[in-house]
Amino acid sequence: MRLALFISPRRVGILLTIVVIALSIISFAGQVSTYVIGHGRVFGLVRLFDVGQDSNIPTWYSSIMLLFCSLLLALIAKSQKTARTRYILHWKVLAAIFLYMSIDEVAMIHENADLILGSHISRTGFLHFGWVAVGIPLTIIFVLSYLKFLIHLPKKTRLLFVVAGAIFVSGAIGAEMFAGRHEEIYHLDLTYAMITAVEEFCEMFGIVVFVYALLSYIKEHLQEVNFGIKEAVQAQ
Fold it and tell me: Which residues cross the membrane (predicted)?
């Protein structure tokens, strides 16, 4: 028996966009309940859907999507290796990066950066969250090292990669910096919650665009992907 699974990049993109919008709206409603109405629990649902919290539904969703990106990148890397094309290592490194990001989403590795940085960085203002001081130069190094790779990509894929990256970084680093500065001055309030909501929306939607880009690339350049399961051949 053969099982065929067909995936439409457009339909996946629309579905994931709806999920991201739904999570963002539910989270925002929870923050309004907390800071305006004065009900910060609502049977635990506020924390369960708060995009600014860890170990909840949005965290689980983001981790799965990052892992999905890693698997798609690994699939593309495998196809590039078979076809003996250029930039195989770049695809593999991207797969490894997204695998790390998926783990970090639930293990909160980057949020423990302050313990590693110690007192080497003055964590005030826009650098209130110490890991940003490391994230900015790493992002610049990554972009510079991947410029030739981006230029080599098909025009549509290159544009989608750039858009996805810009959206994701504007949230992960840009909005994070504003959130840190606001927390330092005003502490936690509705405005901080709104900045965090924008940050997380940008991160989640950036990944949606990236998933769409990867699926479109596979559809247009790999045409068909076959999976098979077989017993290992033992040496005689």
Answer: 12-37, 57-77, 89-109, 129-147, 159-179, 191-215
Q: What is the C-alpha separation between 140 and 59, in angstroms, rounded?
A: 26
**229 in a structural domain:** no
Q: Largest alpha-carbon pair distance within the chain?
A: 73
| Rounded CA separation 95/66 (Å) | 10
This prediction has a pTM of 0.89
**Distance in angstroms (rounded) separating the CA atoms of residues 69 and 91:** 11
* 171 part of a folded domain: yes
Our count of domains for the chain comes to: 1
pLDDT, tens digit, for every residue of 190-233?
A: 999 999 999 999 999 999 999 999 999 999 888 666 666 666 55
* Each residue's pLDDT tens digit, 153-195: 999 999 999 999 999 999 999 998 998 888 888 888 899 999 9
Q: Kindly give, in sequence order, each residue whose CB lies less than 8 Å from that of residue 181, ignoring residues fewer than 6 positions away.
A: 125, 126, 128
Return contacts of 188-194, CB within 8 angstroms, 24+ apart.
189/35, 190/31, 190/32, 190/35, 190/36, 193/28, 193/31, 193/34, 193/35, 193/52, 194/28, 194/31
